[in-house]
Amino acid sequence: MDLLSNLALGFSVALQGINLLYAFFGVLLGTLIGVLPGIGPVATIAMLLPVTFTLPPVSALIMLAGIYYGAQYGGSTTAILVNLPGESSSVVTTLDGYQMARRGRAGAALGIAAIGSFIAGTFATFLIALAAPPLAEVALKFGPAEYFSLMVLGLIAATVLAHGSLLKAIAMVVLGLLLGLVGTDVNSGVARFNFAIPELSDGIGFVTVAMGMFGIAEIVANLDSEEKREVFTAKISRLLPTARDFKDSAGAITRGTLLGSALGILPGGGALLAAFAAYTLEKKVARDASQFGKGDIRGVAGPESANNAGAQTSFIPLLTLGIPSNAVKALMIGAMMIQGIAPGPQVMTEKPDLFWGMIASMWVGNLMLVILNLPLIGLWIKLLTVPYRLLYPAILLFCCIGVYSINNSAFDIFMMAGFAVLGYVCMKLSCEPAPLILGFILGPMMEENLRRALLLSRGDPMTFLQKPISATLLAISALLLLVVVAPVVRKKREEAFQE
Amino acid sequence: MKIKNAKDFWAGLMFLAFGVGFVVVARNYSMGTAVRMGPAYFPAVLGGILALLGAVIFLRSFIIHPEKVGRFHLKPLLIVLVAIVLFALALKPLGLVIATVIVVAVGAFASHEFTPKATIVLAAILAVFAVVVFYYGLGLPFNIWPAALG
Description:
heterodimer, A: 2 strands
């Protein structure tokens, strides 16, 4: 049994003391920033990237992954207790979770969210272990044309799922691609778009972009809309849901897990889409849907399982193809590159300990989240009362130190300030920054593969349509675009995001 | 013609400007051919696409549903930017401790709930934290105190 021996290898890595420690640190930090308003996993991972340089690669990736799914978890805690989603993927949880809390059932809501997430996480971990090797094998056959088309699909999928205007999301992707091209062109050695500034000939660091657009710009946006947070301080009497709760939500957890796992695999998919879809599904299949929005436990169990499953399976495209499906994954690719690992299908064969260790650590991390967080909920509630005015100067400082320490260069801090302005302007104009970051990471990769593909085909662009895999990927991209532009779906999509 | 959607009006202009800008700068580099692309090829094509998208978004803003741009809060933005820039300038000559105090103290002005006492305490705590974690813990190469003193 290959699967079992692979998982055994993975667990032997994940259970090493140092990796357990970093997994623990990751999920704890993830939960913390998930709970805290105004700072998300993207900014946190960006801040920690320079630090990961000093760690062994496995530990670094285990910690970063832990931050990502820990944040999902912390996000749902605030969604239930304060009616504020800590992360976008827990928006749906506010609908029924907060209502449950208002009825004095906060404990049950938190409990079922944790248990549902754990079940979903377990399933998704095994799914990754099962699906990754065959996918990586397919990916090894990929040539430059296939890679190019795959990236097109990934970018299109990311724009389709962005909030708001599709056109603006596509424009943000293209802008990101262009910004990614700044710096020395690898083929000709010509320094492009550097305006004779020596620091720019190495390109713009993506940590700089991410921190400016997510970290700093978000601080400014939060400062101009200081809302008062009302913490739900009612005593949480029992955390364990009752037997009846379990019976009610078993179906929802199962459906959420399956749906979330499937949607997470899509490039550009992941936790947010999974949660929305699961909530809609629960409402559809429920015999009595009248309690939804008023504190139905299924409205918590379904989406919470789905977003965790989706968060896990969205690692599949990253691990097998080296293609990031969202901003967090893009940063993890950055972390791999810092460690000198080229992300892609070869990681599994060349570094099996890293690959399987990371997968096993996800399960370990999920277990930690359940064990840790149930007793720690009191602490998280306390943290919610930390006023933002004490929080944001610290974030500001960490962003500055983080960006500076990559190259020990003050210029990078100035660049970050520039991207903060761009990020703030984009927010005001309802242009999502996430597609830009994705484009930024993929820009150089796309150019490289486009060049190689056209070199091989002697300049004939039909090569993208003549190769079956590439043609299929492009067809799916076109279909996705068509589907979104079609008026019926467009209306549905707007509704889904407004809910 | 009246602008209906101000957000798209400005967003369209911004994308148009970026697109045109990239195309114009790319003209300094060689285009090459599709078989052997020069450094200008891909950015010029993308810049063209971006300019086109920007133009469409711009023109559409005259016909689609109206939307106003939310108030642009210049004060917090400027204060935060000044804090960041001062940190960058202070870090090497003045050291981590003073730079931290500067970024925290200046940055704190951006909030309308600013209180001097809380800010001083916060700056002190963060300065200690930064030195312990980043200098001793992670071994990042900072000056802690002004270079002139060391």
